[in-house]
Design a protein that fits this description.
The complex is a heterodimer of chains A (536) and B (309). With 536 residues, chain A is of the alpha+beta class. Chain A has helices at 2-15, 54-63, 112-123, 141-145, 176-179, 190-196, 250-258, 276-279, 308-316, 320-327, 344-347, 361-370, 390-407, 418-426, 445-448, 465-476, 480-497; strands at residues 34-38, 68-69, 79-80, 83-89, 94-99, 157-161, 164-168, 212-218, 222-227, 241-245, 264-267, 285-298, 333-334, 382-385, 411-412, 432-438, 500-511, 516-517, 533-534. Chain B has 14 helices and no strands. Chain B is flat. Classes of the chains: A alpha+beta (536), B mainly alpha (309). At the A-B interface, helix 1, helix 7, helix 14 and strand 16 of A face helix 2, helix 4, helix 6, helix 11 and helix 12 of B.
Amino acid sequence: MRRLGAAGGLVLAFACRARTDTFGPAEPPHDRDTVVVSNGTEPRSIDPGVASESSGIEIAQNCFEGLTAFDARSPLSPAPGMAERWDVEDGGRRYVFHLREATWSDGARVTAEDFAWSWRRALSPALASEYAYQLWFLKGAKSFNSGASTDARAVGVHARDARTLVVELERPTPFFLFLTSFATLAPVPRQAVERFGGLWTRPGNIVVNGPYKVVRWRLQDELVLERNERYWDAAHVRLRRVVALSNDNDPSVMNLYRTGDVDTTAPNSVPPLCAVPELRRHRDYSEYPFLSSYWYWFNVRRPPFDDVRVRRAFARAVDKRLLVGEVLHGVPRASWSVLPDLFGPACGYRPPLDEGDRFDPDGARALLEKAGFPGGRGFPVVRLMFNPSDQHRLIAEALQQMWKQELGVTVEIPNVEWKVMLDEMARGNFDLARSGWQADYPEPSTFLTVFQGGGGQNESGWASAEYDRTLADAMSEQDPSRRNALYSRCERILLDELPVLPLYTYARNDLSAPKLGGLEPNPMGFHLFKNLFWRD
Amino acid sequence: MLRFVLRRLAIMIPTLFAVLTLSYVLMRAAPGGPFDQDKPLPPEIRRNIEARYHHDWPMWKQYLHYLAGVARFDFGPTYRYADRTVNEVIAEGLPVSLELAAVALALAVLFGLGAGLVGAVWRGRWPDKLLLGLSLGGMCVPNFVLAPLLVFVFALTLPWLPAARFVGLRHVVLPAVALAASYVAYIARLVRAGVVETVQLDFIRTARAKGLCEAAVVGRHALPTGLLPVVSYLGPAMVGLMTGSVVIEKIFDIPGLGRYFVDAAINRDYTLAMGIVVVDATLVLVANLAVDLVYGLLDPRVRQARAGS
């Protein structure tokens, strides 16, 4: 399959030779009531309670509206959605949402009980929702979701009346209003779920409360959405129809964009890296970073990476600017911090970097010598695993060369199938492994909780009681500046201990028709179709 | 004849059972599972998912549960597409793959037959040499090279045909041509060889001695006999076109069974992969049976041997 990508890229490179102001057509070749977007891989599910990957969440967020609505300009202070206002009580432990008068697409009224029922459903072990943990901030939610408690009524969500929803949290959660805009916390139509069971998301059965409704769904091909005229804000939804293509072959998406069959590679396709230098000549191409980090796990359970000096030596021997500039055409942003440097605008957090975190080959060699491997002598051959992709291989080869050159060590980069690699990682049978993290919400704890001891998501085997304690304190802290200071201490521990080697912050690169408006770059990478429009 | 067909159909059931069991064992023996992912799940969530799909049961119990479903023609849920069952995915993907394979096969037979006949009739002369060269090229150029070239020429440079997707007749052309190319070449060579061999046989000499024109000799006598190797090739070719269209389906974003199969294998979507294996195995068995039946109709010697046995 990699060869397919290369062959497609070749076609693109030739196609790009025809110099024009735009890579695709300047005018949309279809009616101005429709937009065709590329939604990436086929969604696993579009049921808000079940959707787990970006393509499914994208559809769910555009068909179902939560209490709040995602706002690209201020993700932590979202716009009113189904709730027209809310009160925060008990020091941030209780939220009282006041719902607007709104209806489902079948005409039924959207009530507070719809939310309570939907959240309990998403938490029920039988539904097995992957993103149920987005609701674990509610009182009693984790216990119910894990099966330790069977009393759904003990979960901290209750309808006081048809238009008032009361939510009790385990502890103050400063990003809770973002979570209420996330798909997992959107309401689902109880009437349709109970009537159609597992078939309720099919066109014809589906009932929505958001701006769009699915009218056609051809697997591995397209989802056609049409404006929900019963949506409370339908007057501001400008496009009647959105066609979301399911297409995980990026070169092919570029070809479709070139011929005018796709209006934007957003929200979930990316042009191949090899085409970037050519694409940058066109004004319909753009790049922007988002809250996602690319890193390598060190396995600290066994030598040689059980020695923090070896981990630091490996980190300081990597010239990330060279890597990003030469290998990745400068698309992502080189990162010396574990967390992306993008939380500032949302919550004021800045990574606590110091000079020791930068590229320092002399320092790296000195550290390796102190660890007992002067000039790399006696250092065992270690293996770096990555999932099959041209880009991951290029990065691995570059780092293999840097470590050989700067430290004199040999790193093997075997070709391992993706699931085999995940299996090896789960069993702790690796030295170095490619991974990364994408924010579930725009707040530092979405990254920092990954490194908690015994969390199941920390692949390195590293644990620190001090880290866990500081993070717990930070997550309960109400004062934003004190909370950021505690987060900063956590990240400093990570940078000193280095269970991961951070390499870069991901960037999205998109092609979008020049006259298509409403695609607002944002750190979460979400797009609301209701904001899209065609310029004159 | 009826007994022959019934006997072959009866053999299909244990064959399919063996294929199913072997696939199950191999799939489950492969490292990794359907719920391993880049972003690991919290243990509580993972337990819920495993319970939902009965992965917390012992393996033998899971297998029996699966077999009981298959006996009712229910291949179970897919892990990858939570909103769908395996039966639904196959019902959506199979007609697409069949359509693509049928068009490609029709193109392959049409052009392969024509080229083979021209080569046989003008044996050793320039049309024959030209077609031999082209067919050699057709066999040598892999479809993952041909397909992007076709896209470049006919979709991007001359915007005559769509670059991808499979939603109308125009969308079928490029993938079908890319898929058929190597089959055209192979069929042309089979036809040429078959006809060239046949025209040297005694009954053709007799036909010529009776004063028949060359067209009648080739068309009415040499061609039916010369086509026998082609007929025996058509069954596997159809199945090969269906199951081997993975690359083409990927390049042109065609929602066919081949693409589902590769994705299912990569994602360890056990139920979907096994469902497609059973469908493909059934197609192979049915195609082989059909070829044997047609062979009997075309060649009296086979018919007689079958009657004798």
